[in-house]
Amino acid sequence: MNCFLETCSRRVVDHGGQVTKYVGDCVMAHFPPEAADQAIMACVETLEDIRRHREQAGQCRLLKFLYGGFGLSKGPVIQGNFGSFTKMDYTVLGDIVNIASRLEGLTRSIGKAIAMSESVRNACHGEWAFEKAGEFHLKGQLQAQPIYSIRHPVADDMKTHDQILEAVRCECNDLA
């Protein structure tokens, strides 16, 4: 887990983002509004790093099954320290944060490691090969929204939960 969190966090910071918190096995990050291309690049490079971790896993069986999905959305957030006298955390809040989380969850369904809102796609200036993944009704949203990804080998390198479990079963059977 620490390997995954370190890999993601390093790439976020390398591309001008800020890690706001870890939520279980997820890294929540925030980029400046004009940094859509940098956010996508951080995702691509993280996915490349994760692939290398899998390829070089050797006897570390857990790393062989490491995959990640990224949800990107763009819009206004409230940022700061929130909490109580017992515990305070720096975080970002807002509908756009919830959308990013829903998009990350959608990656397993669409078979792409990166899912982004139309606002992210429209904010990019780089030469990305965007592709529409479909229109989806995200929880908390009134209307279905177009969701995009990119055509890139690491974005296509996504396994579903069931595919990973099957690979683990096969590996365990091979060891028995």
Note down, in words, how this protein is organized:
This protein is α+β, with helices and mostly antiparallel strands and 176 residues long. It has one domain: 2-Layer Sandwich (Alpha-Beta Plaits), CATH 3.30.70.1230. The chain has 6 helices and 8 strands; from the N terminus they run H-E-E-H-E-E-E-H-E-H-E-E-H-H. It has a 4-stranded mixed beta sheet with strand order 3-6-8-7. Strands 1-2 form a two-stranded antiparallel sheet. It has a two-stranded antiparallel ribbon with strand order 4-5.
Q: What's the architecture, going by CATH?
A: 2-Layer Sandwich
CATH class: Alpha Beta
- What is the number of beta strands? 8
Q: Note the beta-strand portion.
A: 15-25%
| Number of distinct helices | 6
* CATH homologous superfamily descriptor: Nucleotide cyclase, GGDEF domain
Which consecutive residue ranges, at least 5 long each, have pLDDT under 50? none
How many domains comprise the coordinates?
Answer: 1
Which structural class best describes the helix and strand composition? alpha+beta
Calculate the terminal CA-CA distance, rounded to whole Å.
26 Å
SSE order, as H and E? HEEHEEEHEHEEHH
Instruction: Please identify the oligomeric state.
Output: single chain
Structure summary:
The chain is an alpha+beta fold and 176 residues long.
Structural topology:
Layout: H1 2-14, E1 18-23, E2 26-30, H2 36-55, E3 70-72, E4 78-83, E5 88-93, H3 95-110, E6 114-117, H4 118-123, E7 130-136, E8 145-150, H5 153-156, H6 161-175
Parallel strand pairs: 3-6
Antiparallel strand pairs: 1-2, 4-5, 6-8, 7-8
Helix pairs in contact: 1-2
